[in-house]
Amino acid sequence: KQKAELMTDKVGKAFKYLEAALSLIECGIAMETESPACKSAYSVYSESVDLIKFIMSLKSFSDASAPQEKIFAVLCMRCQSILNMAMFRCKKDIAIKYSRALNEHFSSLFKVAQAPSPCIARTTGTPSPLSPMPSPVGSQPSAGSVGSSGMPVTIQNMTSSYVTITSHVLTAFDLWEQAEILTRKNKEFFAQLSTSVCALALNSSLMDLVHYTRQGFQRLKQATKTP
User: Fold this and answer.
1) What are the tens digits of pLDDT across the range 166-206?
2) Which domain range does residue 20 map to?
């Protein structure tokens, strides 16, 4: 990574940064093996994704006219895609837990909303149990119990986390489809790579991803004479 920072050539710099990203992914794999909870691994995968995003920002590789740069873009996009799937797997159990809790919460709200108001509330003017009671003057709501939207803060936080976790899957599919479009323009290169290494898919392991990307990267460097 330090070598990349000293380089001025954008393509050469991008190549060096990708090497650093692959090493970072390997660190994450080792962490995940040591600790199945993989909280640390998630952070490393997230850092790897950010590094690859930075690589892609150095130059518009996907729009470049040179086929080698399009191939490089595919390798980067596939790395991002499979990393996002790995990040989702790290927090899948949390997403399932939150999904059940949110379903229960909103189902109960729906049932309450559909329930008819008690007749006594309409005839005597007695407040309905569903109607909020006026707060005494000067009273303060319990801290952090309800957000500005009227939704409990715990539900707001749970919803936010759930969206963040599940968005990894959507991002993974989106990047994979973008990469597939570019792959069609370099069918021979990727066909040979799949034959000699492995056929990469969205559910491929990170170890397969690193091996596949390294091999493709080496072939690409040989074609472009990049050190």
Assistant:
1) 999 999 999 999 999 999 989 999 999 999 999 999 999 99
2) 2-90+171-224
